[in-house]
Amino acid sequence: MNIKKSILLRVRFAFLLVAIFAGVIFYRITHIQFVDGEKWRQKSDEVNLQYRKVNATRGNIYSMDGSLLATSLPFYRVVLDPSIAKDEVFRAGIDSLSFLLSKQFNDKSKDYYKRLISDARHTNKKYLILNRKQIGYQEKQEMMKWPIFRQGRMSGGVIFEKVEKRFYPFKALAGRTVGFLNEDNYGAGIEFSFNEYLGGENGEALFQKIAGGTWKPVHDANDIKPEDGFDIITTLDVNLQDVAESALLRQLLNKDAEFGSVIVMEVATGHIKAIANLQKNKNGYGYGEYYNYAIGGQGLTEPGSTFKLLSMMALLEEGKISLNDMIDTGNGTYKFYDRTMRDAKQGGYGKITIREAFEKSSNVGISKLVNEHFGVSPSKFLAYIEKAGIDKPIDFQIQGEGIPYFKTPGTKHWYGTTLPWMSIGYELKVTPLHTLMLYNAIANDGRMVKPMIVNSISRANKVTQEFKTEVLRKKIASDKTIKEIQSLLEGVVEHGTAKNIHNSDYKIAGKTGTAQKLINGRYTQKYYASFAGYFPADKPKYSAIIVIDSPKGFNAYGGDVSAPVFKEIADKIYAQDLKLNNVQNPRARREQFKDNDQLPFVQAGMAEELQMICNQFGISNHYKGAERWVKSSANNKSIDWKANKVDEPVVPDVTGMTLRDALYVLENKGLRVDYAGKGRVRSQSMTAGMNIPKDGIIKLTLG
Amino acid sequence: MVKLKEWIDNNLKGDPIIWGIVILLSILSILVVYSATGTLAYKKMGGNTETYLIKHSSLILLSLAVMWAAHKVQYKYYAKLSLVALWISVPLLAITYLFGSNVNEASRWLTIPLINQAFQPSDLAKLALIAAVAGMLAKRQKNIKDFQNTFLPVIIWIGIICMLIAMANMSTAVLLLSTCLLLMFIGRVPMKFIMMVCLIGSLALTSAIFLGQRGSTFFSRIENFISGEEVPYQAEQSYIAIANGGVVGLGPGNSEQRNRLPHPYSDFIFAIIIEEYGLIGGATVLFLYLALLYRGMRVVAISNRPFGGLLSAGLSFALVLQAMVNMAVAVGIGPITGLPLPLLSMGGTSLLFTGISLGIILSVSRGDHEDAFPVEGNAPRKLAKVA
């Protein structure tokens, strides 16, 4: 037999084998189709498969200083496919697994779990929810080390089904502003307004419906990976927010008021640093955040006297009056048509200057002036309102902004009495946010910036979108007018309706407002007390508005109710914010240290903080390193900062640090700290540079 | 018509029936892949189903072009080329195993820089090894029983390549080894040597399982299949598709199981073909593969030289064996392997290598190309025309 013939024979033999194999495949197809066909077609209807969404992880909400205001925490439901584990694995692990489960969930006995799992294994169940109780991430990590579970999903059969829960570390702080989102995707605040960013893109995966109405994922991985949401960084400052909220709460409790709102804003940028809304709980005790009165539609109200600022602005811009002109307010009443305008003071202020009329908030004085100069053409007055930019919504970042309401001359709602009443803040509606925006523009020398609450959007610590301060009006009035109004607002605090908050440390400028509340078309004896202003008056950093609705008791005026809240907030901010405490005379302080010929007891801490303190006190100091933590060394009347390498994985040197810093540094290393004494750390029980013992306790002596 | 025929005669040389089968399967491939990628397109491309249609069609066209180019080359060059390719694939496979991108926990893919196209070096290695083995066997036909000079070099190459592939892709390695064994059998290697290869092969595979990434998956699949207690999800869905199809099928584009079967456009495309085109469609596909193998085999009969015959036989068997294995999986005769159905499945560069394989078979079938290794001294050295 020659080579070719032999090869040919072999090839034909091989071909025959393949042909037979093909025949078997064909037979198999017919078998599936005709013999088992009914069974499979039935199964096709039974197996209930569906693409279901896989939720993306929702983004976090941060305050400007990086505190977490809202975050999503993962929780897990523990499910087991008991049929997966191999016999020897199952037998070896089932006892200790049921023991651990019983201990973990603490509801059923070890035997219960053992029976539950073994029965399910016998009946070849594919999906067994071990317990409805959800576990946290740490517990999950722990559980993954348990017998059987540690084999993973493919060979152990354990499935941890993730469920996310929204968590608010600061609880109700700025609750209504941080907001919420319910299951129908409806909600409030930032959670709702920025849902598009926070929500991310949901993924999809194939699920199979199993008995009991639960859905079991078919594959291990998702078919479309969900894309996690973006983080939102707000302009809020947790400390200021806390200050604002507690000051407001105290006054609300004090006055048993219905609700109150506070907004604190940074003058130059329009960044809202704090926003609080507290309302009496339904049961009548205590207060909670239920509605964003500071911004929302229900917060629209007749502002009262804080609006007189706009009247003065219009009058001054018209150039027809000067602040020292006299105005006769008479006996405190004045009749426009059929309605009588009244001043708060019984018997009236008599003849006073226009400045006094504003500072004492004379309704008669202001309305007479406005009626005199704008009565002929009220639309001119409205043109000034428009120029000031508070007649329209500003498209605030949080949805649900109240729409300002102003009457139009010539329409059927416009009466002869409308203009005078408008001039003192009635017959129009704005929200506290709009009023504050106007006061902020005055503080900002006429430049009106748009209030904002979301500073940037980021993902994985990378900023993807940054919101810049938006200027709504470059100049709402002439420089001269702005200067005059600023002096009027300072006057209100110095010797007007808010002189109770006058203090010598720093100057506040602002205006009180006390509006009678219109309920069912009638003005009642309930009041809406407000104070809007800014501080420090000579170099404004923050503006704020406080409104308190229906305070009870004898003194229901804005000056008595709301201004003290403003002062309390301003005081605390002033004390905290070093930049506001402009060093009056650095040299004098420097002399002090020269005389003592002694450097202050600043030994160690964070470079940035220590440098700032020393600079404030005019102590010369030098630092060339880049480490965050430093130790000091005196060098001929100046301080040299030396890098203190606390980031290395050994026991750090904390001597000279404040207790607060030392605790931070040491506990981050996993050490427990025990201390005695007061002051800075004098000595530490573990030598710096040694290895960190696990669960070690370090003793600090302060002094 | 006459002009077309003329053009075909001038340009599409080689076995016309192989050309016909390839073109038929290509058309079917485009139809079925278009239908089966509906879910994938919906999920990944936001409903733009044409994306995959266009991509797949252009790849098919490209692979036909590659096939045409390959059939123009005199097949004697493939003997040298295959050795070069074999040397290249060794480092490529190693690099892929160590640094390749991970799909389903196995690194099989290497991204070609510049054009940014992922490709599986195992495709190249497979083609190169079969061609090289055919070459080596052909060259040594006279002393085929010589252990040291004939058998050893062949088996060393087979061992190295299969081992490297096995580390990341056990199914491909086993199939390749089987094909090589078959080729050796056809190439007249004594049975005792082949039994030895079986031994070495099983040793090599076992060690790869312990060293490689996918060993446990491979075994658990086989174990599941043999124990047979429970039908795995994919198989169950595949049976449902086959049962739904009936004799005439649901019609093109009417598959329901494409939404439930994982990889309906590749691993389980045969099930979708039966669902849409019925038993008739399935049988036709089976027949087409057998016909392809038959025509590939016929080349052995007409070629005077062993290299052409062995090359053609090896490549035809490699292709058709893989097809048989894939179809066997879909109908539940074999454990789930994850091997695509050549010529029909969607899949980037492996289509191109299939194209090259077919091109080589066609090149041999032309009969007007010179063989690389003469066998008998008295055989004519020049063209051996076959009518």
Automatic annotation (TrEMBL), chain A:
UniProt subcellular location: Membrane
Gene Ontology terms, MF aspect: carboxypeptidase activity; penicillin binding
Keyword Transmembrane helix included in the entry's annotation: yes
Pfam families tied to this protein: PASTA, PBP_dimer, Transpeptidase
Keyword Cell cycle: yes
GO annotation terms (biological process): cell division; cell wall organization
SUPFAM superfamilies: beta-lactamase/transpeptidase-like, Penicillin binding protein dimerisation domain, Penicillin-binding protein 2x (pbp-2x), c-terminal domain
GO cellular component: plasma membrane
Protein name: Cell division protein
Organism (species): Anditalea andensis
PASTA domain location: 645-703
PANTHER family in UniProt: PEPTIDOGLYCAN D,D-TRANSPEPTIDASE, PEPTIDOGLYCAN D,D-TRANSPEPTIDASE FTSI
TrEMBL record, chain B:
Major site of localization recorded for this protein: membrane
Protein origin, superkingdom: Bacteria
Any one biological process term the GO annotation gives: peptidoglycan biosynthetic process
Entry keyword annotation includes rRNA processing: no
Segments passing through the bilayer: 17-40, 52-71, 77-100, 154-186, 193-211, 268-294, 306-331, 343-364
InterPro entries: FtsW/RodA
Any one Pfam family match given in the protein's UniProt record, by short name: FTSW_RODA_SPOVE
Keyword Cell division on entry: yes
GO molecular function, one term: lipid-linked peptidoglycan transporter activity
EC number in record: 2.4.99.28
Catalytic activity: [GlcNAc-(1->4)-Mur2Ac(oyl-L-Ala-gamma-D-Glu-L-Lys-D-Ala-D-Ala)](n)-di-trans,octa-cis-undecaprenyl diphosphate + beta-D-GlcNAc-(1->4)-Mur2Ac(oyl-L-Ala-gamma-D-Glu-L-Lys-D-Ala-D-Ala)-di-trans,octa-cis-undecaprenyl diphosphate = [GlcNAc-(1->4)-Mur2Ac(oyl-L-Ala-gamma-D-Glu-L-Lys-D-Ala-D-Ala)](n+1)-di-trans,octa-cis-undecaprenyl diphosphate + di-trans,octa-cis-undecaprenyl diphosphate + H(+)
Key words, A-Z: Cell cycle, Cell division, Cell shape, Glycosyltransferase, Membrane, Peptidoglycan synthesis, Transferase, Transmembrane, Transmembrane helix
Cell compartment(s), UniProt: Membrane
Membrane topology: Multi-pass membrane protein
GO CC term, one of those recorded: plasma membrane
PANTHER family membership: CELL CYCLE PROTEIN, PEPTIDOGLYCAN GLYCOSYLTRANSFERASE FTSW-RELATED
Protein family (similarity comment): Belongs to the SEDS family. FtsW subfamily.
Protein name: Probable peptidoglycan glycosyltransferase FtsW
Source organism of the structure: Anditalea andensis
